[in-house]
Design a protein that fits this description.
This protein is mainly α. The protein has two domains: 46-246 and 264-368, no CATH class; 383-528. It is 65% helix and 5% strand. Helix 20 (415-421) links the parallel strand 1 and strand 2 (425-426).
Length: 530
């Protein structure tokens, strides 16, 4: 008997799987497929909270406490993120939860909402068992895969893009989506896309896909793009009405002092460790998901990923959270395309049997890809051993728990989230000394280390004056001072914050009342003597 005949005879004699065994095995695989999502959620909620997320919720809490936004609180972000953060900040004021816990609760609820909306949109869509299993396993994982970047503005954008892409697929392939479902998904997506102007490339590419696939006659009667345009228009019109200082005061500061604070150029950022890896992932996803046979869902997801990549590229910072939406969306596009092709290639019974196991394997593979380098979950695991933020938190909790602190530092991390965990409040009008850093991008023409007041630009003089006046008007309990200033040496001398601001008599007189309480790394802490 030949080998081929022997194998066929063996397969015919092998005991077949009982009906009771097949569903049980499938349930076990489906349960296993959710394990990476649960682990990723635990990692996302574990300290440390992302530094930008921590700084934004801290600023929002100060805003709700009475400090006006864009006059007393100056930041580069448009107002929408502060309006969204007002929800957890208000919860923290009304409940025993602190700002961090209230924020994480809201973020988890948002992730669950986007997951369930996506599942509802996909449930009515025609899809084979492998595609359905892959998406059932990967969508909840994609919602929480960002790890340390959980809660970032890019994470929010990537999160809402998932149900938005599913809605786009339904608008192309059918069946028709009820307005009671389509319009809330469109509004939710618009909120995420409006967080930064860079994000608008995502709906632009996806709506272009819908237009090409359905034709302009159907597209112009579709309420979704009009809903998005209306919401964006109302938000843009509301900013000068309710936050006039953003356009009149903050944007010029951003344009002149923030945009060039980067180690990468527009082109070499593509070869950076973070964005370079995401570029390779995106190119793979485009190759697999963009062809028409891959289906509308894969196409919508991969174009959303492409729009997210463009948003990261134009910011040319090379930071992990800029690339986070690509990590969320590109694997989903690959999974949708691969699942569709496997469903067309395999006999239906075989595809149905293999689908649960394939879903679990895909989820573990996606989690393994995300857990690379020094990012999550490794930074959470090693936080008590090597975490700068952990040591600073312990120090501030011991020396200035719940106190007001003047922070003179160019870095958001590790100051945030250490201040949040110590329940301390920064008194500085900005999150860092970025305005001063931008003012000293070039050394003074006089050859001196610091400019005299009559030589200062309006921006530098504003920082010099308000920092000293605010410090003297309400002296905080402590001053956290960084030796690192991220300002180049001029006149053969390093930049020193205390020396710089002490040229103002109000700052010098007030700082004389403080004594040094200790040193940790580049940070020195001074406490006020009563």
């Amino acid at each position: 008997m030949s080998d081929c005949a022997a194998r066929m005879d063996s397969e015919q004699r092998a005991p077949t799987e009982s009906p009771a065994q097949a569903p049980r095995a499938a349930r076990l695989w489906r349960a296993a497929a959710l394990v990476p999502a649960l682990v990723a959620l635990a990692v996302a909620l574990s300290p440390p909270l992302n530094h930008d997320v921590a700084a934004l919720i801290a600023f929002t809490e100060r805003w709700l406490a009475g400090e006006p936004l864009y006059t007393q609180l100056i930041d580069v972000n448009p107002p929408l993120i502060f309006l969204l953060n007002a929800i957890p900040a208000a919860i923290a004021r009304a409940t025993p939860l602190d700002g961090v816990a209230a924020l994480q609760l809201c973020l988890v609820l948002l992730a669950v909402l986007c997951w369930r909306l996506t599942a509802r949109l996909l449930s009515a869509r025609a899809q084979g068992p492998v595609e359905a299993a892959l998406l059932a396993a990967l969508v909840p994982l994609a919602c929480v895969i960002s790890g340390y970047d959980f809660g970032q503005r890019e994470w929010i954008m990537g999160l809402v893009a998932i149900p938005y892409a599913a809605l786009a697929a339904r608008r192309i392939e059918g069946p028709r989506v009820p307005l009671a479902l389509a319009l809330p998904v469109a509004v939710l997506a618009t909120v995420g896309f409006a967080l930064k102007p860079h994000f608008l490339g995502v709906p632009a590419l996806v709506e272009l896909l819908v237009l090409v696939r359905v034709g302009w006659r159907r597209a112009v009667t579709d309420p979704v793009p009009w809903t998005i345009a209306l919401c964006l228009g109302l938000y843009a019109a509301s900013i000068p009405l309710f936050f006039p200082q953003f356009f009149g005061f903050v944007l010029p500061l951003v344009w002149g002092n923030y945009l060039d604070l980067s180690v990468f150029t527009f082109w070499n950022v593509l070869l950076s460790e973070i964005l370079g890896a995401m570029l390779l992932l995106l190119l793979l996803a485009l190759t697999v998901a963009l062809p028409p046979r891959s289906g509308a869902l894969a196409q919508a997801l991969v174009l959303a990923a492409a729009g997210a990549f463009l948003a990261a590229w134009v910011q040319h910072k090379g930071w992990t959270y800029h690339a986070s939406p690509v990590l969320m969306l590109a694997p989903l596009a690959i999974a949708a395309a691969a699942g569709r092709r496997l469903d067309s290639a395999l006999p239906l019974p075989r595809a149905a049997r293999a689908a649960p196991a394939l879903g679990a394997l895909a989820a573990f593979a996606m989690f393994a890809y995300a857990a690379r380098g020094g990012e999550a979950p490794w930074m959470q695991i090693w936080r008590p051993v090597i975490g700068q933020e952990y040591r600073l938190t312990q120090w501030l909790t011991r020396e200035a728990y719940g106190q007001r602190i003047l922070v003179l530092s160019p870095d958001i991390f590790p100051v945030y989230p250490a201040l949040n965990y110590a329940r301390s409040t920064s008194t500085l009008r900005t999150m860092t000394m970025w305005l001063l850093q931008g003012s000293y991008a070039a050394c003074p023409e006089s050859g001196a280390r610091y400019r005299e007041t009559w030589e200062m630009s309006r921006t530098e003089f504003f920082v010099f004056r308000t920092t000293a006046e605010d410090f003297a008007a309400r002296p905080p309990s402590a001053v956290l001072l960084s030796r690192r200033t991220a300002i180049a040496d001029c006149a053969g001398q390093p930049f020193d914050y205390v020396e710089y601001f002490s040229r103002h008599p109000l700052f010098a007189a007030t700082f004389a009342r403080y004594r040094e309480a200790g040193e940790l790394g580049v940070y020195r802490l001074f406490v006020r003597e009563e």
